[in-house]
């Protein structure tokens, strides 16, 4: 969003950083901008999830129910994304993502992403590289946590 939230814009942050201004403006038309109030769920664990969310501003928590207890999986903020895996492989969401402060997000679903890829393959490649890097970074972090849990 713009600084005053009157004109939707995807900022050059995170996975969007390699894209030029025009590429981000075009891409924005393939998705939707959405305000998320504190306490509101962006994604609910177990629900069908087919979209990628890019956090324009704000902070959200990802939690999951395990053994009857809510477990904080992590926080996401400005320039980060959630929903990467289900964008590429739609399935039930593995976590609930809740705004902890007012947040602005942009969402694209898998069908809209496919249309963007077909129309604009070069910038779409940069976007998908960013998604892949995000997934790889998060997988590496999980692997390190598992290894440290087992004393590795």
TrEMBL record:
It comes from the Bacteria. SMART domains: cNMP. Pfam families: cNMP_binding (PF00027). InterPro entries: cNMP-bd_dom, cNMP-bd_dom_sf, KAT/AKT, RmlC-like_jellyroll. CDD domains: CAP_ED. Residues 15-117 form the Cyclic nucleotide-binding domain. This is Cyclic nucleotide-binding domain-containing protein. GO terms for molecular function: voltage-gated potassium channel activity. Transmembrane segments: none annotated. It comes from Brevifollis gellanilyticus.
């Amino acid at each position: 969003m713009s600084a005053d939230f009157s004109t939707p814009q995807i900022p050059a942050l995170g996975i969007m950083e390699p894209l030029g201004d025009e590429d981000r403006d075009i891409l924005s038309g393939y998705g939707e901008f959405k305000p998320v109030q504190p306490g509101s769920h962006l994604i609910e664990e177990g629900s069908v999830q087919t979209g990628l969310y890019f956090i324009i501003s704000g902070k959200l928590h990802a939690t999951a129910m395990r053994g009857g207890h809510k477990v904080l999986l992590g926080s996401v903020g400005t320039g980060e994304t959630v929903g990467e895996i289900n964008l590429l492989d739609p399935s039930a969401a593995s976590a609930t993502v809740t705004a902890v402060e007012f947040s602005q997000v942009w969402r694209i679903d898998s069908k809209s992403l496919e249309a963007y890829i077909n129309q604009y393959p070069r910038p779409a490649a940069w976007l998908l590289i960013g998604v892949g890097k995000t997934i790889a970074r998060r997988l590496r972090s999980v692997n390190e946590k598992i290894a440290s849990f087992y004393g590795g």
